[in-house]
Amino acid sequence: MKEITISPVTRIEGHAGVRIYLNDQGQVDSAHFQVVELRGFEKFLIGASIGEAPRITPRICGICPSAHHLAAAKATDQIFGVEPPATGKKLRELLSIGQFIHSHALHFFMLAAPDFILGHDAPAETRNVIGLARHSPDLAKKAIAVRKFGQRLTEAVGGKPIHPSNALPGGMSTALTEGKRAELATMANEALGIAREGWDLARGLLDGVDMEFGAVTTGFLGMANNGVYSTYEGPAMMLGPDGGQLGSFSGQDYTNFIEEYSEDWSYLKFARFKGGDYYRVGPLARLNIVQKMGTEHADAALAEYRERFGTVTQATLAYNLARYIEFIASCERAVQLLSDPGITGSDIRTPVGAVVNRRGVGIIEAPRGTLIHDYSVDENGIIERCNLIVATCQNNYGMDRGVEDMARRVVENGALTDGAANRIEMIIRAYDPCISCATHAIGRMPLKIECVRRT
């Protein structure tokens, strides 16, 4: 048995592994994306008050806490039978946008860009954010500035830059002051300027890249509001592999359309459409689904993107460019909301009383894809059952099959070079997986790639 280990694999959120099995000729027999960490939040939420869910679930992850915060809050709205007022909804959307800006800026500029700007075969010691900062210091400074805005926006609306707490059943707990709105509006316009300027770089990053790398054919799932890109409201739309519409859902009916399952090589759950079709979520899926982004500059970028890739694309590496278009749209939408006089209104919460419904399902778009929070409670609002379906689980099939496709391309005579290993990582990295969200890890578990020769 031959074993090749790469540890650590960098520039993903969390820890996972890739296991490649070789036949006697040193060729790839099979390969899998593997996660063997503990998933615990669904269990220890049981027994807690449903009103605590929006405050507990942001602790799942420090990268995308706002998505869990808002999905849980939307579920509690249903359980208490309330609808947040217009200003409360706008603040929730603004909180979601803040997370998209800082998360997408982090991934695009700091995690993905080194592969394309410095080269996927560049030495590992320079193929990272430090190497990128040395190579393109102005770019690194702008990336930090725009990510700072995302964090400041999250802090102002959510109460804290990490693990926000202001969303609660019926709306929000704290209004946005006029002074803070004006400050954020200035930052939003600066961020939009950076995003627009960066499009010239982003549009060319995939030039000369083989878009068949990590090939996988799936359906897609993502939220749209009357065909317009949305992160907070609208039904989750389902597309088949050919781009045909398969249906939509918006709440408890999701169980009629998707199902979870497991495989023996990973603790990380998988998801698929009922009927057996596999699907993916996230930026690639959302851009395949929407008719338009709904903002000027993002719509122009989407037109260029579709001229190159078509209305529906299966190309895994296109996730990187789709993510940047969402980044532009998020900056534009932040400018719009922060220019809206109603954003500082005081009517931000509908009062809640007793439990009205024993089950609530909150669905929202997280930066990495569709997020579902499903809670069942007793008559006193104590959680009896909890199920969380996160984007990384829904992309698990795509990552798993993409890893095998790339392994077959780059493993030669049982050997895996550093550059070849990084190409495998690039497929995983394109999805921007959040292993913490998907598994809720305990302890330190380094990601490694192993090649194993079967005897």
Structural overview:
It comes from Methanoculleus submarinus. Keywords: Iron, Magnesium, Metal-binding, Nickel, Oxidoreductase. Fe cation binds at residues 64, 437. Ni(2+) binds at residues 61, 64, 434. By secondary structure, the chain is of the alpha+beta class. The protein has a single domain, classed as Cytochrome-c3 Hydrogenase, chain B (Orthogonal Bundle). It has 14 helices and 16 strands. The protein has helices at residues 41-44, 53-56, 65-80, 86-118, 129-135, 137-158, 178-202, 283-289, 296-309, 319-338, 391-394, 396-410, 418-430, 435-439, and strands at residues 3-6, 17-22, 28-34, 167-168, 171-172, 219-225, 228-229, 236-239, 245-249, 258-261, 270-273, 279-280, 359-366, 369-377, 383-389, 448-453. The strands form 5 sheets. Strands 6, 7, 8, 9 and 12 form a 5-stranded mixed sheet that branches. It has a 4-stranded mixed sheet with strand order 1-16-2-3, covered by helices on one side. β2 (17-22) and β3 form a beta hairpin. α3 (65-80) packs antiparallel against α4 (86-118). The longest helix is centred in the N-terminal third of the chain and has 33 residues, at 86-118. The chain is globular, with a radius of gyration of 21 Å. The relative contact order is 0.23.
Supply database-style keywords:
455 residues; alpha+beta; Cytochrome-c3 Hydrogenase, chain B; 5-stranded mixed sheet; 4-stranded mixed sheet; 14 helices; 16 strands; globular
Summarize the structure.
Belongs to the [NiFe]/[NiFeSe] hydrogenase large subunit family. With about 450 residues, the chain is an alpha+beta fold.
